Amino acid sequence: MIQQAEMTMESEVKGSEAGRGIVVDRLNAWYGQHLAIREISLTISEKQVTAIIGPSGCGKSTLLRCLNRMHEVAPGARVQGKVLLNGEDIYAPGVDPVQVRRRVGMVFQRPNPFPTMSVFDNVAAGLKLGGVRRQGSLADAVERALRQAALWDEVKDKLKQGGTALSGGQQQRLCIARALAVEPEVLLMDEPASALDPIVVRRHIGMVFQKPNPFPKSISENVAYGPRIHGLCHSKADLEEVVQSSLEKAGLWKEVKDRLGDSGTGLSGGQQQRLCIARA
Q: Largest CB tally within 10 Å, which of 21, 92, 227, 257?
């Protein structure tokens, strides 16, 4: 059992100081009468990769499941304490756990593709649930997520086939793509590479510690991608305002305001990184 852990992840990113990231405060979790984790306090800054390490059965998976309210799905399970996501208590009264799970995605140790859905529909499921209906937007999001999960080249001609027809390793990457498609604020991964071969594992490590990856489109289209996918802008003026605001927050607007039609991949490495921050 993980118990009485007081952990703070040091980071140059001061996100958690401003309410960004995850803050766990005196968290306890039970399965019936069994106390699985005890008095966990943990701070994780945003845009960080954090590994939770410990022996089998010590409560690592339970802790992860508490961070997106999956723990309470188990019969007899309950939680006590606070989990703050960007300053909001996800266990506060009135908080919808479904919305929490959209913001905090999770990939499990064993692949669990939806058995009645095609490869395409598996990846697009979360987007459709969130109200995305335009086929072009769905297709773009599905391709992007499958590329991030290192699966696109293997399934691009099999998108209409059932997800369960893929190999075990491909099914796991399909589940990772499904989680990435909705662009969650946090992605929890519970030993997702335990059943994958070493070559694929290296791809996953590269995905987690991902270098800047602007789309091969214009700077403006890179930043507008998310709002378009999620239908957040209803006019060209709205979209232009979001693009400018996002680039300003990323400290990139003055450098690219006269080059918005140029390709994002033509920027320097540092500018590409800030472009990806603006896109997020």
A: 21
Residue pointed to by tokens 């662009």: 183
Distance (Å, whole) CA 58 – CA 40: 13
In angstroms, the CA 72 to CA 65 distance is 8
Answer yes or no: is pLDDT of 141 > 70.
yes
What confidence category does residue 172 fall into, taking pLDDT thresholds of 50, 70 and 90? confident
DSSP3 helix / strand / coil % (the chain, rounded to 5) = 45, 20, 40
pLDDT tens, position by position, 54-109: 888 889 999 999 999 999 999 999 999 999 998 999 999 999 998 898 889 888 88
pLDDT digits (tens, 9 = 90+) for 26-37: 999 999 999 999
- Are β-strands 22-31 and 186-189 bridged in parallel, bridged antiparallel, or unpaired? unpaired
Tell whether the torsion through CA atoms of 41, 75, 129 and 119 is positive or negative. Answer: positive
Confidence at residue 123, expressed as pLDDT on a 0 to 100 scale: 95
Residue 161's Cα: distance from chain center in Å?
25
Give the residue from 209, 214, 230 showing the smallest Cα distance to 274: 214
Q: Is pTM beyond 0.85 here?
A: no
Label the pairing between strands 22-31 and 34-44: antiparallel
Instruction: Fill in the amino acid letter for 50.
Output: T
Classified as helix, coil or strand, 277 is helix
Residue 101, both tokens:
């799970």
